[in-house]
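Quick log. Single chain, no ligands specified.
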Amino acid sequence: MIFMQNNKTKPKDLYPIHIKTVYNFSYRLSGNADTAGVLTEKVFQNHRSEQDKLHLLKLAWEIFSEYYGCIDLESENPFQQALLSLPPDLRCTVILRDIMGCSYHQIAVILDKSDFETAGLISKARVALSKSYRKLNITS
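-> predicted structure:
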């Protein structure tokens, strides 16, 4: 069980949860399981012990941004391909907000933007993703 008697989460029990969260975020950013694995490994090699999820996602974003030009962004999955068609900052915002459920403020912290700038990026990302859906003929 994850919770202690005082309802505080044990750090050692959170570690697998954080690994999964960072991996999922990295996979959506890159569209590639191998790349997501490498990014996740880099995050956990570079983090200080017992950091929160927000710090780890921010580190994943920073590492992804640094290596973005070296990554081949392709996917056979139409939804993932629509995500990959977005510029990295827009892709990041829509993944964090609409897939992972992060708040606007949390996303702002990860991207080093203001809450206002983040709201604009999320709106822009949703419009771009909708256009990409239409372009790829994806129907829901």
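The first helix runs from residue 11 to 30.
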